[in-house]
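Changelog note: in this version the structure field was regenerated for every chain. One regenerated record is shown below for reference.
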Amino acid sequence: MTQILSQHGMSRRSFLRTTGLGTSAAAGMWLAGCGAAGDGSAAGGRVSVKLGWIPNVEYSGIFVGVADGFYAKQGLEVEVVPGGPNSAVTPLVTTNRVDVGIEAIPENVATAVTGGAKLKIVGAGLQKSPECWISLADNPVRTPKDIEGRKLGITLAGKNTALVFMKKNGVDPDKVSLVPIQFDPAPLAAREVDALWGFASNQPVALGLRGIETHVMPMADYGFNRMQGVFFVTQATLDDPTARENARKFLAGSRQGWDAALRSHQRAAEVTVQKYGQDLGLKLDEQVKTLTAMAPYVSGAEAASKGLLWMPDALIEETIASLASIGITADRSLFTNELLEG
């Protein structure tokens, strides 16, 4: 992860530390879960899954799946490998050191495939991108055209996405002032910028906990959407009957875990904090609010009939188009719902 210090001197890593959303302390630690509520009763398959970031409610469906025995009921033991700064996911899956990977953004998988890796995206944790423009409620940016004439806080990682978004929506970039910032929303709180690029489940929650009301304008509502929190495996896993069946069971248990997490944000946050975030400084109230903000992005209209993690044709096409707009090549062969079909 790129660490760039702005005038505010705070990176995403340090922001997460100061707001209780975690640190990299557990990045090299294995978190094991097996059986009903971890009682070791699962007999049969075993799957290891590598997270894209540190344990937090972003992965609460998996944690609930372990804690409430949904994987155990599938006859599966699941081992969770935390992520963190400089903790890559795709190399571990590609080299068969873990069975399933979860990447925050599909371009990481697509880039690996372009480089020769034989990987397939098999599920979408987020049906809608949480990337958004965040402004203060008393000075909202409601439409793309409202961006013109404003000062926009933008991270280096988000700059290309922001410029593509402006182009797609007829916004003149010459009428916009881009201010380099980090993940910390302090510049918006201090009214040094009129809006900032961020994620609906992160900066608005942090500001809300400080009593600062915000307005969120999702980029996905204006022509720039791609699935995120993608689950992926190797082609070899799909070709091997035993590994394939274990991966199928893992996704089935993950769906059940996410269903339960979405039914009770409080319960999901408690499992996350108490069993996985004890050493990370996670705060229960913040995790509840984060999951609540994230929930609308987890399930889409078609997912209601096909189930969570399903990748509708329209979403696949949107993802391919959005990746192409930022210079990433992908086609439909990167995606398959075959493990979710039965």
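Spot check on this record: Residues 241-263 form the longest helix (23 residues). The two ends are 37 Å apart (CA to CA).
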